[in-house]
Amino acid sequence: MSPAIRIAGVTKRFRSLQALAGVDLEIAQGEFFGLLGPNGAGKTTLISSLAGLARPDSGTLEVMGHDVVRDYRAARMALGVVPQELVFDPFFTVREMLVLQSGYFGLKKNDAWIDEILHHLDLTSKANANMRMLSGGMKRRALVAQALVHRPPVIVLDEPTAGVDVELRQGLWHFIRKLNRDGHTIVLTTHYLEEAETLCGRIAMLKAGRVVALDTTANLLQRFASHALKVKLAAPVVLPAALAAKATRQESTELEFGFDRFDEVAELLAGVKSAGGTIVDMVLGTPDMEQVFVGIMNQN
Amino acid sequence: MQGFNTLLYKECLRFWKVGFQTVLSPVLTAVLYLLIFGHVLEDHVQPYPGVNYTAFLVPGLVMMTVLQNAFANSSSSLIQSKITGNIVFVLLPPISYREFYSAYVIAAVLRGAMCGLGVLLVSLPFVSFNIAEPVWIVAFTLLGGAFLASLGVIAGIWADKFDQLAAFQNFLIMPLTMLSGVFYSIHSLPVFWQGVSHFNPFFFMIDGFRYGFFGVSDVSPWTSIGVVTVCFVVLAVITLQMLGRGYKLRA
After folding, report:
1. What mean pLDDT, rounded, does chain B reach?
2. Closest chain B residue to A80 measured between Cα atoms?
3. For residues A151 and B141, what is the distance between their CA atoms, to the nearest angstrom?
4. Which range of residues forms the domain containing residue A256?
């Protein structure tokens, strides 16, 4: 079985900017995959190259075994892309736009599927509204609908929840998860790291056009993040050097320590107490993707 | 083919939805030209023996409307899509660059022909003539329209902002159209300017188109159709190469 996406040795330069500096990546069919990185890391360029919107200087990209240049028709049929920018055609209604998009992909009678998408994305009542009349969140969901009209096996979502409120975001993820359960491969880029942590089984992190981390979400959390103990004191104290070295943050009456084993908590609390600190509040934090992200980006 | 059919349909639907601006306005503009120039010059100019000035003017205005609107359709559609970003909707699907080109050009020719037909119909109460060679009318409408539509595709792709497109339209298309013999026969010009007119492809489009109405023209319609065909083919090849390379569309 061919991978959903295979990227080999892809480079892309825009004048003096090396947007992609040799990216190799393979995403299996059925994965929920996260592509993370700071702004300018090359995520959108990589997605654009995959979708045929940008032409790499070297390397190859395949979607479901189809080369995106040589076999572009099959590759594009297999791919649905939700672009990052909130773009729309002001001449058409939501339904007209979806019918047109179906036609571009060679589908004549697609009304049943269009109705289903509209239902799942909570857009049924707006089907005959002009795109200009929709709110930002609705426009975003309409973009998702457009990417799905041809039932692509691989769906790429480039920051799909930017500007979408919490309720709608949850509805969107519910639908995307369903698509993933139904066998669609999902590739997600997002700046909401908790979303990536919750949804993605595997994550790649890009920095300056290179993949700097690639592993399962669980492994990344285990390797790069630790639990956190956050303590609030009644008054500031001076910690002994050994304890201060374990603190990841110390601001006035607030202290934060990282730890891997829970039996370390008692030692840390005892150390604070013996330094003269009176604890007025305490929180235990679990490892999160933000820690992983910051750690990896600082390493590289 | 379905992708091409849909893109063609979408391009037609796009201009039809704003028909006041894209069809009725150009017809009104051309009719105003007809009324004003016809009124002022009718008794002073007889371009061809047996053809009065207003009748002479009508085919020129019809063709000018065809050409300007064919250019306007493809160029404005592309630049709007580029600036608003919705061009991705036609770049992501499996539509080849040849299908892309054909859809934009055919839709533009249709709009041009529709506007031209509108001008002709509205002119009928003011003039009477028998159409001498309708095949030439159709041939020049299609080839001239396709030439300008291709030029519109090039301008729409090349321009990064509306200002650049307006410059293309106002400093190239408009002068070449106005100086192509829409309002006069080039035989009324000094010899030097008659020669210069032969370097303007728009002159051959207008002159050949007019031949279809009167069976009379400044140059042979075969010469005109040859020039227009060569110009169209050259422009089509350039446009297809731009699209094939993804110039300004695919980074």
Report:
1. 91
2. B92
3. 41
4. 226-287
